[in-house]
Amino acid sequence: MTSPQSAPHDLPWSQAEWLNPPQDVATDGTDLLVTARSGSDFWRTTSYGFVRDDGHALLTGLPPGSAVEVGFRADFAELYDQAGALVRVDASTWIKAGLEMSDGHPQLGAVVTRGTSDWSLAPVPDWAGREVTVRVSRSGDAVTVRARREQEPWRMVRLAWLDPAAEARAGLFCCSPERGGLTVRFTRLATGPADTSLH
């Protein structure tokens, strides 16, 4: 997989808006430290039978032909600790992608929700404690999700359908479904043009 060809530009944290403000937000230099509320999550129905829409997300516009990148450090410890990028149209139409603790290791994955949620994961134990970037790119009827550890090559995570006419926002997210006290260090929020090709 080649790297996306478009160069994003950093967006000040203040130029994005919170969906479900977290328990605490602080800055450390240029980084944003976000502490999730206990029990926070994004999920709709499938297998578990519940709906959660109280995860924390700092969002900006994602019009067709644009992309958003989110950088963070993967310092997770407990089951279902998670962070990454969220694309959101409304409470029943969204995509979250990034890292999540499951089976004792960080997992790279995505949840695509159109009425009900699905979930896919792949273990990335060597990403623990490292800087991770998740990129969501919107073009035509698709959102392409890629991720990488530090400056390594991009890895394809998901290709998901999204209505070309939908008004969507995107940005960073974090959740802590099983505990309180998760603090995620976000290092970057960037926007730019969509990737020029899938491969």
Q: Total number of β-strand segments?
A: 18
**Assembly type of the shown chains?**
single chain
Overall shape: it is globular
CATH-defined architecture: Sandwich
Structural class: mainly beta
CATH topology: Jelly Rolls
Radius of gyration using CA atoms only: 15 Å
Question: What's the level 1 CATH class?
Answer: Mainly Beta
Q: Indicate the proportion of strand residues.
A: over 45%
In N-to-C order, the SSE pattern is EEEEEEEEEEEEEEEEEE
Kindly give the count of domains.
1
In helices, the fraction of residues equals under 10%
| Count of separate DSSP helical elements | 0
Kindly report how far apart the N and C termini lie.
Answer: 6 Å
Mean pLDDT over all positions: 95
Would you identify the regions where 5 or more consecutive residues have pLDDT less than 50?
none
* Main sheet overview: 8 strands, antiparallel
InterPro entries: ConA-like_dom_sf, DUF1349, UCP022704
Pfam families: DUF1349 (PF07081)
Protein name: DUF1349 domain-containing protein
